[in-house]
Design brief:
This protein has one domain (2-60). It is built from 3 helices and no strands. The chain has helices spanning 2-24, 29-47, 51-60.
Length: 61
């Protein structure tokens, strides 16, 4: 019984740790937006996208 309780506490601490670490390494909105813009521009150049296709690609990225 004591082993189960300590295991539950360990799992809760582990989940909390992963949550904190995940939020620290998550991408900021501005960085994600600039990455999407970069990828969309690259796709537009390489694939000769129209303006409509460019907007659709930006939404996907």
């Amino acid at each position: 019984m004591m082993k189960e309780e300590s295991m539950k506490k360990f799992i809760i601490v582990l989940i909390a740790l992963f949550t904190i670490v995940g939020s620290v390494f998550s991408m900021s909105y501005e960085h994600a937006r600039s990455q999407a813009l970069f990828l969309t521009d690259k796709m537009a150049y390489e694939l000769n996208l129209t303006e409509e296709q460019y907007e659709a690609a930006f939404e996907v990225n």
